[in-house]
Amino acid sequence: MSTEDTKKGGNPLTIFIVSLCAAIVMAGGFAIVIEAFILAAANLFELGSTFVWAASGANALLALWFAVWTFVRSWHVERRLRAGLEVDQPKMSILGNLRG
Predict the structure, then answer these.
(1) Can you tell me the distance from the alpha carbon of 18 to that of 75, in angstroms, rounded to the nearest whole number?
(2) Distance (Å, rounded) from C-alpha 38 to C-alpha 73?
(3) Residue 2: is its pLDDT beyond 70?
(4) Residues 6 or more apart from 60 whose CB is under 8 A from it?
(5) Which tens digit of pLDDT belongs to each residue from 35-68?
(6) Rounded distance, CA 72 to CA 92, Å?
(7) 100: CB partners within 8 A, 6+ apart
(8) How far apart are the first and last CA of the chain?
(9) Which of 33, 38, 29 lies closest to 57, judged by CA?
(10) How far, CA to CA in Å, does 19 sit from each of 7, 9, 76, 88?
(11) Which end of the chain is more exposed for a tag (fewer CB within 10 A), N or C?
């Protein structure tokens, strides 16, 4: 890669793919670990299938939020780096990272 390519930033398609992959890996790993805890707790304390379904639904929603946040944060950081700015502190809001 030349210095000029580095200064102007990456291809938007490449940034999209990298952001999507990061979101899948982070949210997927998070969801798998939490689901293992849910199933272990349900079996250990005999909580029943209602608990498993409710907790799994909450886990799915949380993982979806985490995936979207990770994607938007990655896109935001790449956009700042492309503009020659420093990486800022992460915001917990999805919209805050979009506006940033």
Answers:
(1) 9
(2) 28
(3) no
(4) 31
(5) 999 999 999 999 999 999 999 999 999 999 999 9
(6) 11
(7) 76, 80, 88, 91
(8) 29
(9) 38
(10) 20, 15, 10, 17
(11) N
